Amino acid sequence: MRPQFPLSGAHGSAADRRLSTLVRHLGDSSSSSSSSMESQNPNSDISLSPTAAFNGDSVFANVVRAPEDPILGVTVAYNKDPSPIKLNLGVGAYRTEEGKPLVLNVVRKAEQLLVNDRSRVKEYLPITGLADFNKLSAKLIFGAESPAIQENRVATVQCLSGTGSLRVGAEFLGRHYHQRTIYIPQPTWGNHIKVFALGGLSVKYYRYYDPATRGLHFQGLLEDLSAAPSGAIVLLHACAHNPTGVDPTLEQWEQIRKLMRSKALLPFFDSAYQGFASGSLDGDAQPVRMFVADGGECFAAQSYAKNMGLYGERVGALSIVCKTSDVASRVESQLKLVIRPMYSNPPIHGASIVATILKDRELYNEWTIELKAMADRIISMRQQLFDALRTRAGTPGDWSHIIKQIGMFTFTGLNTEQVAFMTKEYHIYMTSDGRISMAGLSSRTVPHLADAIHAAVTRMA
After folding, report:
1. The domain that contains 289 carries what CATH number?
2. Does residue 42 have a pLDDT over 90?
3. Active-site positions?
4. The domain containing residue 446 runs over which residues?
5. At how many degrees (to 10) do helices 131-142 and 286-293 cross?
6. What pLDDT score does 92 carry?
């Protein structure tokens, strides 16, 4: 007797009909072949695949071990080191003077408000994310009085922190933009290359850092962007360039803007450190606002990992400034089609924390105070390291770039061999290109780092 399934409505739903058909098919097949099957080996019709694991080997036995991520691998190596003097300067996260992770007081207050709100539920967000978060994020980076916002020319979607925002932007450009080439600075954050390449774009470079001066290679930057094809995409770090800590001046930003607009190059800003670099949210957003003020189109990926300490919440936003509100509306509709099969919709908790802080004047003001305190501590670490290197007798080189650079990271100028020496002899961990996280330093550990640098540049010159 065949099992019976209730059908909804007069004729049942499409899913019910498909299920009933499948059951009938299985029933007919089993009844017609059951007599012959009973006298045979039940496994006789099953052909073994060469990759089947019945012989004890994994079907994935041929998978090779992937190398550690060059940045995250630093922490893996650090954790394995039993030395009591070890120092991790590779991690891209803020640390207190005691070397501990920091949860901002304002974040704890916002979370408590959310917990105490009994009306909150855990329903799905829309594909585009939390509406208040999107609106407030656009205002934070573009300015509340931005004409682009007032004219509804901005399409903003909540994404999975900065990386997710970049990836959604890359996928959108790969599908809808006529140019598939993106120019990124040399050097840049290592994940940029993978994010844009896997998003369907062809990655090329423009000169950015000058090892000779340990500053901006401005002439090379202008020459390379001048040679880029019309309409190409250009990745720009909004502030606190990672890994170098070298930013253009506002005057140089204006020259970059004029050049890019004259060649119809499309700006794609990565804003991971707004307010975290200088301590000023408005100051750090000035380069982005210059490009928006001229009426042109641009992309901006935002992250709240650093400036609110919400690393593990993975909360960020992608904003696309368009020419008209109609274009912005259509762009948003296509962003939904990118997001839906990727992760469907973003998580609610981190975005709710951000929105709670940004829309409450008292909490917002408290956030700016805590944010400036973090930025000031990093600036202090720069000065202390510079002073320690300068006052050490015989330490070769000009280390003024340490205090000229800005943000979480410093490009020390140390080479691969010197980095390896410092790791082996002093248990100091950093990326092989000599980038260090200033947030990982403290007044207590600055002398240890200065001793290591001194030894490295004198012995490994």
Report:
1. 3.40.640.10
2. no
3. 189, 270, 306
4. 71-102+375-460
5. 90
6. 86
